[in-house]
Input
Amino acid sequence: MTLRSYLYAPGNRPELFAKAVNSGADGVILDLEDSVLPDEKTAAIQHVVDYLADRETSPTDPQIWVRVNNRPGLLEDELVALAGLARLTGISLPKVEGAAVLDRVNQLLPERVGVLALIESAIGVTVVAQIANHHRVHRLGLGEADLIADLKMSPSPERVELMPIRVSLVVASAAARVDQPVGPAFLDVRDQHGLEHSCKQLRRLGFGGRSAVHPKQVEVINRAFTPTESEIEQAEGLIRSLAGSSERESAVFVDSHGMMVDEAVVRSARHILDVATRLGQRERGMSD
Output
């Protein structure tokens, strides 16, 4: 399954869990970290464990992830509490800065539990390739609020100052052959236009989805990271053109729109069709 949206729900607010599950998000992250006050963390992990142990699931339910606390003592206790929960898809691991914490996760969580490794510090950025290549990491995520504070930045609304870091996550993910990274949360929940523009920018950079902090952001995020009908039709046409190129003297040719087409161009088309297939927009094998 392709996860375009991850909606956060505070772990100390169990009355919000079902609402998050029914929001339309591809994934729900029950949060034990930033949204939970220190004196409520014990209650929060118990709420999360109780919910995952008791809830009934259906094939249309979103994946359930839990953002744990990357702090000595808290991390181990939370991982032990979560380890036996069959309904847990994975953990969101904040402030990853190297392999040591991932090795600890590997010791305490079964292999079936995924790991979304969040890059949220200068150190994390410098070792992002090492993190992406750890065998327990399924996907990278970018936490820009913490990162901006660590770098002492004052970025513009377009966040152009963060573009090199964003691209570094895309490059590290592609090199490690893990899923496209998850973009940072858009904090102004009232600005739907700004959210849409930001999502399109992230998708152009090579991100595959992003986090959401409010249910009304989910629809915009899902739409932005879903191939359009026009993109699907164009991709299928390119692949058909490449198949027909076997009758030509060269595999490089100009299509009906005047665009040069070769195998590298078609690789991008295949990616669009793969995403569309995983999202149920087309049947597997069509024009592949």
Remarks:
- The longest strand covers residues 5-10.
- Strands lie at 5-10, 27-31, 63-67, 90-93, 114-119, 139-142, 179-183, 209-212, 253-254, 260-261.
- Residues 28 and 64 are 5 Å apart (CA to CA).
- The two ends are 19 Å apart (CA to CA).
